[in-house]
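dumping this here so i dont lose it
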């Protein structure tokens, strides 16, 4: 049983560690020290719900609703293109407007809305949590639930480390130019993911 929990924790972290739209957003919020705890909790709770669905065998929904995959795919592409464009626009405004102390704090509602869209409109999230973790959990029968709990804890551990650990990079981002570079990198990441979704088949 303990082995199932540990394996779930390790697999979850390995799947979500790659930089993506959600991770880039959490990193940016952590650097800005802006609504970090709610963002971490929303990301971790969303993953926990999807992991539970996968462990419970909810991946059959994609077979029952053949159009669901394409709908999520193109919705994700559209959102990522728009969000990436917003990051490029922020970079063009210059470093001073991106400085943590000078930039106005976004409302909690707008931050959480963006976080939810980046999480739930990303088809890769469903692939990793519902499909992949759901199928791997079957190998740990009859302890699939324990595997799922371990995976959910792995997700929480990663997002907490990313969000709250980002402040360790604060000295680097005291330079406004570093914020410009970060915005450009995030914008490129969003557009790269969008291209992968659009042309990846």
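and the seq i came up w/
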């Amino acid at each position: 049983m303990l082995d199932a929990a540990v394996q779930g924790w390790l697999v979850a972290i390995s799947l979500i560690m790659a930089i993506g739209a959600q991770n880039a957003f959490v990193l940016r919020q952590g650097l800005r020290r802006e609504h970090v705890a709610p963002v971490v909790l929303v990301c971790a709770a969303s993953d926990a719900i999807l992991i539970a669905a996968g462990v419970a065998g909810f991946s059959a929904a994609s077979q029952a609703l053949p159009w669901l995959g394409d709908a999520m795919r193109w919705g994700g592409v559209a959102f990522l293109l728009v969000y990436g464009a917003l990051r490029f626009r922020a970079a063009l405004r210059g470093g001073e407007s991106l400085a943590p102390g000078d930039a106005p704090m976004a409302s909690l509602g707008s931050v959480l809305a963006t976080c939810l869209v980046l999480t739930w409109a990303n088809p890769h999230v469903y692939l990793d949590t519902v499909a992949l973790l759901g199928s791997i959990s079957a190998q740990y029968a009859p302890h699939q639930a324990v595997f799922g709990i371990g995976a959910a804890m792995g997700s929480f551990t990663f997002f907490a480390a990313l969000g709250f650990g980002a402040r360790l990079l604060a000295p680097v981002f005291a330079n406004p130019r570093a914020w410009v570079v970060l915005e450009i990198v995030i914008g490129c990441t969003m557009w790269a993911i969008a291209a992968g979704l659009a042309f990846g088949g």
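The chain is about 75% helix and 0% strand.
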